[in-house]
Each structure stands twice: as C-alpha cells, then as structure tokens.
Design a protein that fits this description.
Belongs to the glycerophosphoryl diester phosphodiesterase family. It is built from 13 helices and 37 strands. It has an eight-stranded parallel sheet with strand order 31-26-25-37-36-35-34-33. It has a four-stranded antiparallel sheet with strand order 1-24-23-22, with no helix packed on it. The longest helix has 10 residues, at about 580-590. The radius of gyration is 27 Å and the shape is elongated.
Length: about 750
C-alpha cells in the first residue's frame, strides 16, 4: 500500500479541522535519520519526511461472543453491559501475528483485568481475517475463522489452576495474564505473561510444552511462586506486556511494561533477552526511558536484527490522551545515560485520513484519524512496510470513541507516505503548549500543540526545593494545580515577595519533586476557557527534562525536530534563595543532546543578567523578552534606571544583540492599540531589531475576544472566539518572524506575509 506523494505538502495552510494531519514521522528503514538532522547546513528549502496515512481499517463489535461457557460473571459492569455473557467475550487484542495470507493470529489478554474476575475467561488466540475498508470501500469487519485454546493437558504446571480436575485443563484468566505473542518457525507460540511474569511455550494446538520460564529476581504480586514475606519487584499488571523475537527466532525480547518497584527512575523500562534453544535468559538487558513515569510499553515488534518497534502509551483515552506512540530502538545504540536511543515512527493521535476511512465511528475518525484508546497494544510491520495497529478494548469499560458505548476491537493499517515539505517562514510557538485547548504546562498541552503544528513548545521554568526544574507559569501554583485543596499541604501556604510584589500562596521551591508529583494540574482561566476544566485533575506537573524529551522525540508538521523554548522565571529571586536556574538548565540541555548552536532550542528571559550568564554557558539561541511597561527585575535590583522601552531603541537593540539572537516582544510594543481599542500604526521596532541582526517573535496571540483588537472581535462576549487569524496577519505583514499562540491550530493557517 506504499505510495509516494508528488504533491506539495501544505502543512501550514490546512483547514483548521485538518491542521494536525501532516505531522511528520520516520519510517523504519535500513538507515534511519531524523528529519532535519541531515540538513542543518543544507541550502535546500525542502525537508524530506514521511506522512502517516490511514489506508485500511476493520473492526470487531465489542459485543461479539465466541462459543464457550458464559464469561464475565465477576466482570466490572460498564457502558450499560453487565455480565455474565452467554459465551466467550473477546475483550480486544493485545497482540497479533501476520500470517502473510490475509489472516492474523490475534490474542486477547486474561479477560476482565484481574485474577479475581477472570476465572471464567478462557485463554485463546484467534485466527482472524479482516475484510478491510479502504479508499475503494469494503466491509471494514474482522471475521473470526477459528481459535486455539491454551491448555495444560500434559500437566506441566506444578501449581493449582482453575480447571485442575478436567481432562483438557483449559487455562483461564485467573491462571495467567497473557499479553504478547510471537510464533516460532515450527508453528509453536511463545507468549509473554504478566502474573509471573513468565514466558510460556505452547505448541501449535495450544498445549503448554514446558514449565513457565521465570525471570530470576523479578516476581509480581500475583506470582504463584511468591514466598511469604517476599517483596515483589515487578508491579502488579506490569509484566511482559510486550514481546519480540529475533529474525531467526532464537532470541526473545520480553519487555517489563512498567518500572520496577525498587527502581529510583520511574521512567525506566527494561528489555530482556531469552535464548529459546537453551531455555534461559542470557543476562543481557537494555534500558528504555518512557516519556513520562506513568507510561507503559504496550507491544514490541522486530523490524530487523537488533531493531525493535515499541508501543508506548498512557492510560488515558479519547480527548484526554497524551501518548499513543510507536518508537523505534536499536539495541546497539544507547545514549550517554545508558538508555536506548529512541526514534519516533508513529504518533497514533495524528494520522491523515484523506479518504474518510471509518468516518462517523466516533472520536478520532475524521480527517485526522487517531487511535485514542486506553490500551493501544498491537503493532505489526507488514511485509510492504505498512504498520498495523490495534487495541485491547478492556470490555466493557473503555469508551474512547463514543462515550457510553464500549469500544469495538479495531485494526488500522497506516502507510508512511513520503513527502517533500517546504517549511513555513513563520515560526510557530505553542505558548505553554496549546493552552487554549488543554491546561497549560502539561504534557497534554505540549502534545496538543505538536499535533496542531507548533514548531516549538514553550515551558516556563521554575525550581523545586530539591533543585529540579519543572514547567509552571509561576512558582506560585495555586492557580494551576489543586494544591489549595490538599489538606496535607495547608501548612505550606506562605506570603513571599517575588520581584518586588507580595504574593500569597503555595510555591514550588517549598516542595520536593516527589511532593509536586502528588498534585494535579488545573485550568488557569476557567471562566475564559471552561472546556479546559474537563481536564482538571488528570495531569502531572512535568519536569523540564520530560518536556525536552517530548520535543526531541517529536517531529513538526514542517518535517523537523520539534524545538523547545524555555523561559526562566524570576531568575534573580531563585538566585537569592540558592536555587539558581542557569546551571540545571544547561545541564538539562546537555543531558538531552541539545547544547549546541544548531539545536532547536531558544532560551528566553525578561531579565538581562540571566541571559548574559547563559550566553557564557551555552551556544544555543537566546531571546530577550520585552514587555510594554516596566523594567527587567535585575535592573531594579541593581538600581539600573533603564526600562524595557530603552531596550527597544536602536541603541538598546544593538546592545541586546551582543548577548542574544532575538527578541520576544509584547504585541503592543510592535503595534500599539488606539484609544478605541483597534490596532494603531506599527512602530519601527521590528525593522530596528532586524537591522541589529535580531529575529522578532511576538506574544501572546489568543483567540478570545477579550485579547483581540476591537476590529477583530466577533461580538461583545469577551470569551467568544474572534478573528485571531486576522490579527496575526497584520503582525506578520509588519515583519514579525514568529508567534507565540495559545491556539496553534489557528496560528498555523498564517503561512507568511500577504503577497502584494
């Protein structure tokens, strides 16, 4: 199904409904280079990249039943469904095997989520044949042809099972939690399991051939061999969710789904190697670092020797989703910290769907297709290079597509189209992420900004008590987190003088990172953006390292690595309390491979001394922020009478150019408002900045009427959307080079100055 596009990509001129469709990704290939990495010094205006496009889809009804005894007597009810059901439920597929003839072996997990409620669920793998819906039509249905029942009829197991006293000894979800599968050359199945975690070896008819292979020193709470008083190292339901095999089938690569209970790095996921000929683990392991602590590894697939695809996902579904990604790793390549280097292959939240495949099937089935299910647990690279992705639907609880209706099981085939893209001349910065759509400074907000074609994401940087940099607009966090509702932190409320102003609340510098991690983000402007309050209480406060990780592992709609644009907040204040921001900021750049002049990084500050210090510490791009009033606080602290107005005179800009590469100007510094609230005559500051060799980025462009000039307001309702695109066009025509916006999906439609 591979197709090479000859049309010119228009990632910055899309209709708003399709603005996210052209997110660029990388196709697995013998030699991989991230878009933009090979062209930093190229004179070509184009970037070669790949576009994920939905080319086929098929579903199986969530309510489908297969022959067998009733199942789900103890399953948690959901979405109007209450067990038991008169047959065997298929609660989605956690793994699949391509048979190369149009059929797949598709394996569900243990049934209904736990040992305690899955004793009536029979462990099986199903032979399925999708009748694909494609651009040319098609039924879009998955047919079940037959199944293999996993069993212990040879009495291999030495611990009790549910069907102990029967001849067939059929295995159930109370015996094992099967999650992953590969097929050996002899037709036998190797299955990754979570209760042990174990590797299970079944013959082609599903009969267990050998005792479960345990992972020494790593038991889960459900392990039947766990001794009294023994501490489980593998967290519950965090065993071998993912399993891949070497090309020749000799080695298996089971992956621990979550972090070990005793691992201080909660983002570490461990890959093991198992030798099938010897029936032992080789002792070789690799460390993979997830985008955030709660993310899990959903599946693995071998592309070629030593090169694996890994599904990384969060536990959110529908519009709450943040991470539903496929990354590629090479077991021969690790970074300076010892983690596997990972490369984005597919962001499953942004897949182009020009043919309308699956349209009308609920959330994420429009011009931009996504797989926003909680349990994205299947990835298979097909023989033509396309990717098959699929879901475990956790029947009957998941309802990502249509709230109140259980999710169907679905397979989607994604083609990675080749494109040549001419990047936009206008730099688009997701202001605190896409803060018009999600609570600011959350990974959800940053990911939404990337989906909406931001070139950079902007974290404001403050410090914790233990010196960890985190993303918050201010160090006072009562307006952006639920801290005020946490009685355990009531005693932390304080009044402090920050940059000359007395402020009462809760401050990041009074919390360790571990304490901040117990808080959840909330919308800062609930009256203005009530829709964002639906996400209150969901998301963690991210560290700067996590924001940088997300950016460097993402590709913009212009085919380049997404940049990060950190702002140091109150650096003079943080210096005064012994929590300097500069050193840990530069250390974070170094740790993420971003401390170089060509890196997609811009450091910004409202203070001057802070930027001068950073100029001596790093070669990345620096930007002086300029407000329409007042002065840099470090000037105030030093008794320097100069103001921001002095910084934007020709002489002031020439001085700025000695330590910075650009300026971030408040809108009214460039084009002031008239007494009537309309835009006035542009000032010469943009031309003066350009003459000094400085780029000009403007802030902050927002959609709501209250933030817009009078001529671009849609009504008297201050919170109603106005003509943000119209306002932006005026500033771009005046020469502004880049824009900070809370609404990247609107700002992306402005591709450059008006011609003529």
């Amino acid at each position: 199904m591979s197709r090479t596009s000859t049309r010119r990509a228009l990632p910055r001129l899309l209709a708003l409904s399709a603005a996210a469709a052209l997110a660029a990704i990388i196709v697995p290939s013998p030699a991989i280079a991230a878009p933009g990495q090979g062209d930093e010094h190229s004179n070509s205006p184009y970037v070669q990249t790949h576009e994920p496009t939905l080319v086929a889809r098929a579903t199986l009804s969530a309510d489908h039943l297969e022959p067998g005894p009733a199942s789900g007597a103890l399953a948690s009810p959901g979405n109007g469904r209450v067990g038991p059901w008169p047959g065997q439920v298929i609660p989605g597929f956690s793994a699949a095997i391509d048979n190369g003839d149009g059929t797949f072996w598709a394996q569900p997990d243990n049934g209904f989520g736990s040992k305690g409620n899955s004793a009536d669920f029979l462990l099986r793998t199903y032979l399925v044949r999708p009748a694909w819906q494609t651009a040319d039509g098609g039924a879009g249905e998955i047919a079940i042809e037959r199944f293999v029942s996993y069993n212990d009829r040879n009495h291999v197991l030495d611990f009790p099972i549910v069907n102990d006293g029967t001849a067939e000894r059929l295995l159930t979800g109370a015996d094992f939690d099967i999650e992953s599968v590969v097929r050996a050359a002899d037709g036998s199945f190797w299955v990754g399991e979570e209760f042990g975690p174990f590797l299970l070896h079944f013959d082609a008819n599903g009969t267990l051939l050998e005792k479960p292979f345990s992972l020494t020193g790593a038991k889960s709470p459900q392990n039947p061999y766990l001794q009294p008083g023994e501490t489980p190292r593998v967290r519950a339901s965090r065993g071998f969710e993912a399993l891949a095999a070497s090309v020749n089938g000799r080695y298996l690569y089971p992956v621990i789904e979550g972090s070990y209970a005793d691992d201080p790095d909660l983002r570490r996921r461990e890959i093991h190697e198992f030798d099938t000929t010897r029936g032992t683990y080789t002792g070789r392991t690799w460390s993979y670092q997830a985008d955030q602590e709660a993310n899990v590894i959903g599946d693995a697939f071998t592309v070629r020797n030593d090169v694996l695809l890994l599904v990384e996902r969060d536990d959110f579904e529908g519009e709450q989703s943040v991470t539903k990604r496929v990354y590629q790793v090479d077991l021969r390549r690790t970074d300076a910290a010892g983690y596997l280097e990972k490369t984005l292959v597919l962001d499953a939240l942004r897949i182009a769907n020009p043919d309308g495949i699956g349209a009308g099937d609920g959330y994420g089935t429009g011009e931009v297709f996504s797989l926003p299910v909680q349990s994205f647990e299947t990835v298979v690279q097909l023989k033509n290079g396309d990717l098959l992705i699929g879901n475990d639907n956790n029947y009957p609880g998941n309802d990502a597509r249509i709230p109140g209706t259980p999710d169907d099981t679905e397979f989607a085939v994604v083609d990675l189209d080749k494109l040549k893209i001419e990047p936009s001349p206008v730099t688009l910065v997701g202001h605190r992420g896409a803060s018009g759509h999600r609570p600011e400074h959350t990974l959800a907000s940053y990911e939404t900004a990337i989906v909406q074609c931001a070139d950079y994401i902007e974290p404001d940087v403050v410090s914790t008590k233990d010196g960890v940099l985190v993303a918050r607009h201010e160090n006072e966090i009562s307006g952006t987190t639920d801290v005020a509702a946490r009685p355990e932190f009531a005693g932390r409320k304080a009044t402090k003088v920050i940059d000359g102003a007395s402020i009462t609340g809760w401050f990041t510098e009074d919390f360790t990172l571990a304490e901040l991690r117990t808080l959840r983000a909330k919308e800062r402007l609930p009256q203005t953006r009530p829709a964002n309050t639906a996400f209150d209480g969901l998301y963690l406060i991210p560290t700067l390292d996590e924001v940088m990780d997300l950016a460097r592992h993402s590709i913009s709609c212009d085919g380049r690595q997404v940049g990060v644009y950190p702002e140091t907040k109150h650096p003079t204040y943080f210096d005064s309390i012994g929590l300097s921001l500069e050193e840990p900021l530069v250390a974070a750049l170094q740790a993420n491979g971003l401390d170089r002049a060509t890196a997609p990084v811009i450091l910004q500050s409202f203070e001057v001394g802070n930027l001068r210090e950073l100029d001596a510490m790093t070669d990345v791009t620096l930007a002086q922020l300029v407000s329409s009033s007042g002065r840099p606080y470090d000037f105030t602290a030093a008794g320097d009478p100069r103001t921001y107005a002095d910084l934007v005179t020709p002489a002031g800009l020439a001085e700025v150019a000695t330590y910075a590469d650009g300026v971030g100007l408040e809108k009214s510094v460039m084009i002031p408002r008239t007494p009537a609230g309309t835009l006035g005559t542009p000032k010469p500051v943009i031309a003066d900045a350009h003459s000094a060799g400085l780029t000009v980025h403007g802030w902050t462009f927002r959609l709501e009427n209250q933030f817009l000039p009078a001529e671009f307001r849609s009504s008297s309702d201050p919170n109603a959307p106005g003509d943000l695109a119209g306002e932006l066009q005026v500033f771009i025509d005046a020469g502004m080079d880049g824009v900070f916006s809370d609404h990247p999906d609107v700002a992306v439609t402005i591709d450059g100055p008006t011609e003529g």
